[in-house]
Design a protein that fits this description.
Layout lengths: L5 E2 L2 H21 L5 E7 L3 H17 L2 E7 L5 H13 L5 E4 L9 H6 L12 H8 L8 H12 L8 E5 L6 H10 L3 E5 L6 H5 L4 E4 L17 E4 L12 H7 L2 E2 L6 H23 L2
Parallel strand pairs: 1-9, 2-3, 2-4, 5-6, 5-7, 7-8, 8-9
């Protein structure tokens, strides 16, 4: 590995975020409030179960209460929404996370929309998306927020840069595009219908890969000196970026694993603590 390459270590960023949370959590507990994240898993998808377990363990290490709810594979939309409503009404729950994906019979969007805005710590509601587009107070989607957190931690300039986003999902590609735009980047969003993708990616000072395809972004696509943010995670601990090839061109790059992933989880914990603090001050 060349010594002039900056490896954007997500574990370091995540540790910094968690360290900042420790005194805040202690202060809340001293006031009689334990931050609580409720995670909902519908069905038996092994990868989803693993992701939920990681989040539960991360909560426990910081003293955040984790309420794990597992629903059957044949759960209906109505049953899922009823569970969400119960959590909405529970004042001891500060954040609600519905693990994606849900079984096909469920209207996932309807379920997401049932989560109250102040408990939407994963940033999945359309109202939360809209508020973030206008730089208002709702919680942003965690992975986009993690990408911004990494750039800020390493003092990488966003303003005035051309950011190319590959992917337009409602919880990753679209929100990170708006967050970068709000930080005065010039943003190009690419997707499955984009023509001349390789040439467009070559224009990016900051490249965000969010397509869910292993090693999709080739080294030859990367502009010399670009910042490469790999938000993908595929089977075998492989990102959306051909890491070794892109490392040759990039000035900074996130690895997979230990890049965006750990910061995403740390961001979820931060949002839960933020929500708990908001709930405390709202009752004063």
């Amino acid at each position: 590995m060349e010594t002039n390459k900056l490896i954007l270590d997500g574990n370091i960023v995540a540790s910094s975020i968690k360290a900042d949370l420790v005194p805040r959590i202690a202060k809340l507990i001293g006031r009689g409030i334990t931050p609580c994240l409720a995670t909902i898993l519908v069905g038996n998808d092994p990868a989803s179960a693993t992701y939920v377990r990681m989040k539960v363990n991360a909560c426990k290490k910081l003293g955040i209460e984790s309420r794990r709810i597992v629903l059957a594979e044949d759960t209906t939309t109505e049953q899922l929404i009823q569970t969400i409503q119960q959590l909405n009404e529970d004042i001891t729950v500060h954040g609600i996370l519905l693990q994606h994906p849900v079984p096909e019979q469920i209207d996932e969007r309807a379920a997401f929309e049932a989560i109250q805005l102040h408990k939407d710590v994963d940033g999945v509601t359309t109202l939360g998306f809209a508020q973030n587009a206008f730089s208002l107070a709702a919680f942003p989607s965690c992975t986009p927020a993690a990408i911004i957190a990494i750039l800020d931690f390493y003092n990488i300039q966003i303003e005035g840069k051309h950011a190319v986003i590959i992917g337009r999902s409602p919880i990753l590609g679209k929100p990170v595009s708006l967050m970068l735009l709000n930080r005065n980047a010039t943003v190009t969003i690419c997707h499955s219908k984009t023509q001349n993708l390789e040439e467009i990616v070559k224009l990016g000072n900051i490249v965000v890969a969010a397509v869910g395809k292993p090693k999709f972004i080739k080294g030859s696509w990367i502009k010399a000196g670009a910042i490469v943010m790999d938000a993908g995670y595929n089977e075998g601990n492989i990102g959306d970026v051909d890491y070794e090839a892109c490392l040759i061109k990039a000035s900074a790059i996130t690895p997979v694993p230990a890049g965006v992933g750990p910061v995403t989880i740390a961001t979820l914990l931060k949002h839960t603590v933020d929500s708990a603090e908001n709930s405390f001050f709202s009752i004063l």
